[in-house]
Amino acid sequence: MEPQATWSAEPERVDPEDYAAGSPFVRQMTWAPCAACEIQVHAMVAQILFRGLCCPRCEDMLLPASDEPEEWLQRILREEDEMAEQL
Ligand SMILES: [Zn+2]
Fold it and tell me: Can you give the residue range of the structural domain that contains 64?
């Protein structure tokens, strides 16, 4: 059986002023398996930089938070903007 997939937290909504309805946008995502719960936990990279990726069921830390979250956040936001422009 395929493991179930779930969000670690609700993904953020985009600001309608940033993207018109129907236009594509870019968000970097990642995921990690929780062996104890047999689920795959998915998250936006920008959300896990500061607090890591935690399993929403057992609250185990699946991926650690970044050592330099501010720096990474700036880089990820810049990359998302650049990629959105290419769509
Ligand atoms: Zn778990």
Answer: 4-86
Q: How remote is the CA of residue 61 from the centroid of ligand 1, in Å?
A: 9
Rounded average pLDDT per 10-residue block, the chain, 87 residues: 86 88 94 96 95 96 96 96 92
42 CA → ligand 1 middle, Å: 12
> Scanning the structure block, which residue is given the tokens 């047999």?
38
Q: What is the pTM of this model?
A: 0.85
- Domain count across the chain: 1
Distance of CA 41 from the midpoint of ligand 1 (Å): 8
